[in-house]
Write a structure and sequence with these properties.
The protein has 7 helices and 10 strands. By secondary structure, the chain is α+β, with helices and mostly antiparallel strands. The protein has 4 domains: about 55 residues, Zinc/RING finger domain, C3HC4 (zinc finger) (Herpes Virus-1), CATH 3.30.40; about 70 residues; about 100 residues, 2-Layer Sandwich (Alpha-Beta Plaits); about 50 residues, no CATH class.
């Protein structure tokens, strides 16, 4: 059996530690109902039935008895009333807290939906921006369709860059060319004094440039001694690339080594890679394409 008030088990072997209500037959620890050993002994000797406070209040309410309660019963009643009031307050506070939290969760749910919508919109705008940037880059590259970079063209005293270029093309590559075929020609100053600055040339028509690029592929190696007999470097003639495409080509060369691709080349400003002989040709238009390899 357990005490009705504290719910702890009662040891029936200890007679003076518990008491039975004569009305509801419930068992209580004496300490839980404020009965001393003397009180319990007195009730037994005088054969006085003990009634718990709940049953006492029930009897009094039934017979409309407004007389003062015994001191201990009154105290127990006040304790219970205070506990009920406190529980009501706690319950009310808990309800308010739950209502507040529900309101906050509703607002959080609305905010989450707004954020999800913004993320989706931002993703769409990012895709559009990337598309526009690629379009602009292609247009920028088209403007360079007649331009080339010449690397390691020897520098002569009191240099006339255009004359050095004409000498390289006519005498070295054996391609007929006139001054009027060149729209612009200049050397870029190199901050590294040990290296020769590259020469940037723009031709007036695409045919001249194409002949030069074809001749370079045919020769494979162009010695700088064709322009300066004392120079021992190799001259390279490359398509003039936009900064974006130049960086992409650099990243592709790095990827080629890391992922063991056998071939990397450019054709009409398009970067292509192939892992093995006869393998699938991969077209590289962005860094994302390299990540997918």
């Amino acid at each position: 059996m357990s005490c009705k008030k504290c719910a702890a088990k009662i040891n029936r072997n200890l007679k003076l530690t518990y008491v039975n209500c004569a009305s509801c037959q419930c068992i209580y620890h004496c300490r839980c109902v404020a009965l001393s050993d003397t009180d319990v002994e007195y009730h037994k000797q005088e054969k006085i039935s003990w009634v718990c406070s709940d049953c006492e209040f029930l009897k009094r309410s039934t017979r409309n008895d407004d007389s003062p309660l015994p001191k201990q019963l009154h105290k127990n009643h006040l304790d219970k009333t205070d506990n009920v009031d406190m529980m009501d307050k706690i319950y009310g506070t808990l309800q308010n807290t739950i209502a507040t939290m529900n309101n906050r969760f509703d607002k959080l749910d609305e905010s989450t939906k707004v954020i999800a919508s913004l993320v989706q919109e931002n993703s769409a705008l990012k895709s559009k921006l990337n598309y526009i940037e690629l379009k602009l880059e292609k247009l920028e590259q088209l403007l360079l369709i007649n331009s080339v970079d010449i690397i390691n063209l020897p520098v002569k005293p009191n240099e006339n860059v255009c004359s050095s270029v004409l000498e390289l093309i006519e005498n070295g590559l054996k391609i007929p060319i006139k001054v009027d075929d060149i729209d612009s020609c200049y050397r870029v100053r190199n901050t590294n004094t040990e290296k020769v600055g590259k020469v940037i040339i723009t031709f007036n028509n695409k045919n001249i440039k194409q002949k030069i690029m074809d001749k370079q592929r045919q020769m494979k190696k162009i010695p700088s001694s064709l322009v300066d007999s004392n120079s021992k470097n190799l001259i390279f003639i490359n398509d003039r690339l936009t900064p974006y495409r130049r960086n992409l080509l650099f990243a592709a060369k790095k990827c080629k080594l890391e992922k063991s691709y056998k071939y990397l080349w450019m054709r009409n400003y398009k970067i292509m890679m192939r892992k093995t002989d006869g393998g699938v040709i991969q077209h590289i238009n962005s860094l994302d394409d390299l990540d997918k390899l």
